């Protein structure tokens, strides 16, 4: 215990490894500990996002979309392809290669920034001017000391009693990324981000997919106009989405899963080859001794202030284990903020400017307030929308579904929200985030030259439409 670290980060997901790197950049003696094991029982860094979340899911989404394009869209371009088949093993190997490359990249970044990489399960032993944490790995325990702790232990998939996860026939997101054969019939519980993305992967590859959502409205968190249009497009693609459907039983029969659900007082049943449980995620603090160490907790989350500080001045918590959206980029920003606070700087995060993205096709992305939120709050606003159908670049790409919608304050024209359904929405939303961070008005976007022909022109046209002066509609 002779080495006392300036900062010890517990967890190496997007929040944890970014916090460690930023702390090291600022000259702080930094260590990061994680217990994540890959399929070869090797401790790796990167957390859920890199290993079984954001990265592998996007790899499979891209592979499955390429198959869909080849089988359904190439002909419109005069590209004729016969006998297109899927080699799922190759697709999975590509996914694993991407994951392994990025995980190795974290190792390289730790070495480059002289971060001590520790392996094992971390338990907070005591909190004081010098905090002590015990790390257990393969039956061996060591104690490390640090002046500051950053807890970035992330989250785990939520489960529900009617559908116990075995990751064979009834699977969570990790199991759904590892199918070695195509399910003929696939059930998905939950029409949120994870459910829609994973449902899309297997639907494109040929599975008959039914999504069961307990809430009465589809994508209730998204802007109503965007959600309605997205629902129509997903139905056209073959995703059967049942809202107001509460699953009451999922019985693994050995080779299949028999599912019962209730909707409008009636009981329905269907048998699936696989069932994905995608009902959200829960903060993960198992083994951390958060309660015992004196940290305040609420509904499983570690309680923090707006700067991610716990009730102890030198202990912080970030990412999925604290309040706010469970988004990797939110965790990254919190990691950087906390490292800079420890170094004596004065960073801030504008939480209203954190974007959301659903990587379906077309993609869905938004930042700021929805129209229904503004109405509920009694805030006067103006709105403008522009369809990709009227965008030249979208026509050339054959990606004419969706729109850009902009909401601006009625009094000073400040942008209050941007909502996009369409190809490249995950990238286009960055312009909305930047505009809102800078306090821009819709007029600022309307008077900014956008290259032609680009999808981004739809963004400018939406801003013009706020003042009822869009050019191309």
Structure in words:
The protein has 473 residues and is an alpha/beta fold. The protein has 3 domains: 4-156 and 282-349, 3-Layer(bba) Sandwich (FAD/NAD(P)-binding domain); 170-273, FAD/NAD(P)-binding domain; 353-466, FAD/NAD-linked reductase, C-terminal dimerisation domain (Enolase-like, domain 1, 2-Layer Sandwich), CATH 3.30.390.30. It is built from 13 helices and 24 strands. The mean pLDDT is 97. Its cofactor is FAD. Belongs to the class-I pyridine nucleotide-disulfide oxidoreductase family. It holds the Pfam family Pyr_redox_2. Residues 5-335 form the FAD/NAD(P)-binding domain.
Topology:
Elements: E1 4-10, H1 14-25, E2 30-34, H2 47-52, H3 54-73, H4 88-112, E3 116-119, E4 121-126, E5 131-137, E6 140-151, E7 155-157, E8 170-171, H5 173-176, E9 185-189, H6 193-205, E10 208-213, H7 224-237, E11 240-243, E12 246-252, E13 257-263, E14 266-272, E15 274-277, E16 281-283, E17 297-298, E18 301-302, E19 315-317, H8 328-342, E20 356-358, E21 363-368, H9 371-377, E22 381-387, H10 392-397, E23 403-409, E24 415-422, H11 425-437, H12 442-446, H13 457-466
Parallel strand pairs: 1-2, 1-6, 2-3, 6-19, 8-15, 9-10, 9-15, 10-11
Antiparallel strand pairs: 4-5, 5-6, 7-16, 12-13, 13-14, 17-18, 20-21, 21-24, 22-23, 23-24
Helix pairs in contact: 1-8, 3-4, 3-6
């Amino acid at each position: 215990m002779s080495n006392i670290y300036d900062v010890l980060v517990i967890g190496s997901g997007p929040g944890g490894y970014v916090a460690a790197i930023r702390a090291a950049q600022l000259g702080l003696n930094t260590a990061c500990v994680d217990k994540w094991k890959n399929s070869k029982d090797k401790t790796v860094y990167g957390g859920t996002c890199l290993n079984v979340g954001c990265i592998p899911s996007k790899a499979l989404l891209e592979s499955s979309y390429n198959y869909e394009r080849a089988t359904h869209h190439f002909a419109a371009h005069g590209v004729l392809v016969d006998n297109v088949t899927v080699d799922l093993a190759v697709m999975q190997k590509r996914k694993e290669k991407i994951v392994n490359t990025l995980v190795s990249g974290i190792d390289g970044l730790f070495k480059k920034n002289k971060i001590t990489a520790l392996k094992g399960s971390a338990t907070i032993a005591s909190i004081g001017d010098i905090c002590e944490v015990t790390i257990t790995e393969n039956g061996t325990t060591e104690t490390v000391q640090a002046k500051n702790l950053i807890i970035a232990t992330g989250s785990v998939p939520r489960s529900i009693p009617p559908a116990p996860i075995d990751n064979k026939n009834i699977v969570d997101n990790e199991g759904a990324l590892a199918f070695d054969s195509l399910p003929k019939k696939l059930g998905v519980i939950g029409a949120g981000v994870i459910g829609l993305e994973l449902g899309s992967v297997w639907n494109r590859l040929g599975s008959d997919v039914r999504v069961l959502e307990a809430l009465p409205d589809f994508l209730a968190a998204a802007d109503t106009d965007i959600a309605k249009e997205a629902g129509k497009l997903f139905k056209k693609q073959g995703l059967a989405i049942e809202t107001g459907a509460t699953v009451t039983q999922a019985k693994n029969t050995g080779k299949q899963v028999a599912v019962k659900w209730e909707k409008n007082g009636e009981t329905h049943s269907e048998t699936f080859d696989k069932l994905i449980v995608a009902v959200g995620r829960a903060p993960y603090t198992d083994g951390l001794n958060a309660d015992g160490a004196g940290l305040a907790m609420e509904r499983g989350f570690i309680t923090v202030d707006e700067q991610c500080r716990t009730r102890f001045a030198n202990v912080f918590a970030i990412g999925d284990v604290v309040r706010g959206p469970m988004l990797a980029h939110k965790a990254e920003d919190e990691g950087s903020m906390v490292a800079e606070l420890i170094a004596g700087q004065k960073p801030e995060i504008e939480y209203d400017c954190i974007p959301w993205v659903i990587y379906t096709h077309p993609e869905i992305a938004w930042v700021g307030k929805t129209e229904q939120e503004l109405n509920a709050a009694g805030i006067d606003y103006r709105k403008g929308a522009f369809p990709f159908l009227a965008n030249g670049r979208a026509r050339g790409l054959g990606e004419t579904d969706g729109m850009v919608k902009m909401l601006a304050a009625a009094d000073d024209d400040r942008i209050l929200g941007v909502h996009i359904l369409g190809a490249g929405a995950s990238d286009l939303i960055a312009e909305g985030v930047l505009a809102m961070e800078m306090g821009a008005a819709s007029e600022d976007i309307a008077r900014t030259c956008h290259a032609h022909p680009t999808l981004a022109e739809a963004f400018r046209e939406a801003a013009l439409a706020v003042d009822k002066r869009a050019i191309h509609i």
